[in-house]
Design goal:
- The structure holds two protein chains of two kinds.
- Chain A has a domain of 229 residues.
- Chain A is an all-alpha fold.
- Chain A is globular.
- The two termini of chain A are 28 Å apart.
- Chain A is built from 15 helices and two strands.
- By secondary structure, chain B is mostly helical.
- In chain B, 76% of the residues lie in helices and 1% in strands.
- In chain B, strands 1-2 form a two-stranded antiparallel sheet.
- Classes of the chains: A mainly alpha, B mainly alpha.
């Protein structure tokens, strides 16, 4: 942060690697290139036509409107999961409960969406959102509260809460809102009024897209322009400093947990009302909630970065899906290898550090010579 | 119904199930403990177990020997912890984030590799894999009750309990172990005393990786005899939780791991009983960890608080 200010006010401000923002961008680009290079090597080993394979991953989604529409539709709920993780991580919390919240709020949405409480096609989705946000916000508090009050290991507790919430969800869906129509355990079909329609059908853009943009901007402003955002930042970078400057760690962790839970509720509702017509509780626990944490690492806890990262990942996943359709030898999980390498590299502070230091030294010497 | 609960809980089969289920959790627990003793919170246990479980099956399948499989699993465990050490110590990355990322990726990476080897994304059942056997101990096996419990367990279970004893001696009775604990207590003081902190931390991480890998290999080569997606299902985290409860007390750690194993056994014994809702019974072990961890931290909180009040 201070780095940033220095460069902004320094006399000879240049567009060079010494500018931290530009340096971050360069670092990200190089990390992505390295990841793609490694992916290409892997593709060489497993695919008969690796050049075409990497081309399909990178440009396949652009080949049809339907593909890019699928990216747009699926990245929104994914981005919400990332934003939730971003809020928690930014304030230095390690509450990993997003997965459980996504699952259990799914049951709430399925219940509201299947009940004839209103005939308005606007009010019905809104009620679904409100219900999920309320439940999500409340349930997310538990691990953060235990950590803040009693020093419980919030990571373990939140992971256990994921499994517990998933079990409760399975129980609720099976016993309260299930239907005999289908073989698997799933909820009743949502009423037509609850489904969210498209504003622009070919690209599958719905009102959720606008919601995401609004939420992202609000979060960006909260994180960067408000007292709460400042508190989150200092608590995340230096908890001791935050404590001595009078930030209540307890209140902060509860607040961020509520915000994250509400965001998870939004993400879950978006996912269900746009992509499904009934709810099937997840069988395994490795889903959108966990991927959200990766997004927050990719986007460096910056809301706008997270949303871009969400689009990037969903785009690659779509590319991999197209590739799997063309060439069955390459499983779509290859995307997680790209993701993994990029995350490891950009979270490394020393990655490309020498390059930057050399440039700073050179500029310093030049300045001195003048 | 009460009768059936009691007859299930106090049967010989239940006890044997619990002992079998304890092995991976104990491995995970000592893996977390050894890393924590040098001051590193290894939360990647779950992912190491997943990787090692798959590597064990593949190594065993490719070589035709289950023991080579075990070694492959251990090798992958070491590679994973070295990756963590490299990024956190040499590249200045946040170790916590690297480990969370690893845990999140573990399943997809395992599925990716499994698909390349078998063409399936669910299990490695299609591979004919040599597996590890159970071990009958000659004289003990003929003793009525004791023989049934002590003899006839899986090989890695015996190795596990041997390691538990050896590790205790290593950590508390050898100079290296004591230096390691010194790093965990106060790294700066240890450094001042001439201890190479980084080297000991890497050593403890490697040991941690080996133990976690053995836990994973046990699941795929001994207990389930195949690798299937999501098979670790939180057992690595139970180890981490046991470490959190133990707060540096080795035997409390083992006790906590055993208690978690008993709850897993309860869950498995009752999941086939139609009198209970299966969905909720499956969550019993997680609920137990949640409650025990929470209660222990609340007790500790009030103990510290009372201590402070007395000081004033």
């Amino acid at each position: 942060m201070t780095d940033n200010k220095n460069s902004k006010y320094s006399k000879n401000y240049k567009l060079s690697i010494s500018n931290p923002k530009l340096f971050d961008a360069i670092k990200m680009t190089i990390a992505i290139l390295i990841a793609l290079a490694i992916t290409f090597v892997i593709l060489c080993l497993i695919s008969k036509d690796p050049v075409n394979a990497i081309k399909t991953i990178l440009f396949g989604p652009l080949s049809k409107k339907r593909y890019i529409g699928a990216v747009i539709e699926s990245f929104i709920s994914f981005a919400f999961a990332g934003l939730a993780a971003g809020v928690l991580f930014k304030a230095g919390g390690f509450n990993l409960g997003a997965e459980g919240i996504f699952i259990i709020t799914g049951a709430v949405v399925a219940w509201i969406a299947a009940s004839p409480i209103t005939t308005s096609p606007i009010l019905h989705p809104v009620l679904c959102y409100l219900g999920a946000m309320l439940v999500g916000g409340i349930l997310m508090i538990l691990p953060s509260f235990l950590k803040a009050k009693f020093g419980t290991n919030e990571m373990v507790v939140s992971l256990m809460s994921n499994s517990i919430y998933a079990a409760i969800t399975a129980y609720i869906v099976r016993n309260w809102i299930s239907t005999a129509q289908r073989g698997s355990v799933s909820s009743k079909d949502y009423l037509p009024t609850a489904r969210i329609g498209y504003l622009y059908e070919p690209l599958r853009i719905s009102a959720c897209f606008i919601l995401l943009i609004v939420v992202t901007i609000v979060l960006y402003l909260v994180m960067n322009k408000t007292k709460l955002g400042y508190q989150m930042r200092i608590a995340g970078t230096n908890p001791k400093f935050a404590e001595y400057s009078g930030v209540s760690a307890f209140r902060l962790s509860i607040t961020t947990a509520v915000i994250a839970g509400v965001l998870c509720g939004m993400g879950s509702t978006t996912q269900l009302l746009t992509q499904t017509s009934y709810y099937t509780p997840a069988q395994s626990l490795v889903g959108i909630g966990f991927s959200g944490m990766l997004l927050s690492m990719l986007g460096k806890n910056n809301p706008i970065g997270i949303v871009i990262a969400a689009f990037f990942i969903k785009y690659l996943e779509q590319g991999a899906a197209v590739l799997y359709f063309v060439d069955g030898a390459v499983p779509s999980e290859i995307v997680s290898i790209v993701e993994g390498i990029v995350i490891m590299l950009i979270s490394s502070q020393y990655f490309l550090r020498r390059l930057r230091e050399r440039q700073l030294l050179k500029e310093g010497l030049e300045e001195h010579a003048e | 119904m009460q009768n059936s609960i009691f007859s299930t809980l106090f049967s010989m089969r239940f006890l044997i199930t619990a002992i079998r289920l304890a092995t991976p959790i104990v491995f995970a627990a000592i893996g977390t403990f050894i890393a924590a003793s040098s001051g590193i919170g290894n939360i990647a246990i779950e992912s190491i177990m997943t990787f090692a479980a798959l590597a064990g099956v593949l190594g065993s399948y490719l070589s035709g020997s289950a023991w080579v499989g075990v070694l492959t699993g251990i090798a992958i465990g070491i590679v994973t912890v070295m990756l963590i050490a490299f990024f956190s110590m040499k590249m200045g990355a946040n170790a916590m984030l690297i480990m969370i990322a690893l845990n999140t990726f573990a399943d997809s990476v395992a599925i990716f590799v499994m698909f390349l080897m078998t063409g399936e994304k669910g299990t490695t059942a299609s591979l004919t894999t040599p597996i590890l056997s159970t071990l009958d101990i000659p004289i003990i096996k003929d003793i009525p009750i004791l023989g049934e419990i002590v003899s006839g367990q899986y090989v890695l279970t015996y190795i596990c309990w041997l390691i538990v004893i050896l590790l205790f001696i290593f950590i508390y009775k050898t100079p290296t172990g004591m230096r390691m604990r010194a790093c965990g207590l106060n790294a700066d003081a240890a450094r001042t005393a001439g201890i190479n902190v980084e080297r000991l931390q890497v050593l403890s991480l490697i040991l941690s990786g080996i133990f976690a890998a053995l836990g994973g290999v046990y699941l795929s080569l001994n207990y389930l005899k195949i690798f299937s997606r999501g098979m670790v299902s939180g057992q690595g985290w139970m180890g981490v939780a046991a470490n959190g409860i133990a707060a540096g007390n080795y035997w409390l750690l083992i006790l906590a791991a055993l208690i978690f194993a008993v709850f897993r056994a309860v869950s498995i014994s009752f999941s086939s009983n139609s009198a209970f809702p299966t969905d909720l019974v499956n969550a019993i072990p997680y609920f137990a960890v949640f409650v025990i961890l929470t209660v222990v931290s609340i007790v500790n909180y009030y103990r510290v608080k009372r201590g402070k009040v007395e000081e004033h």
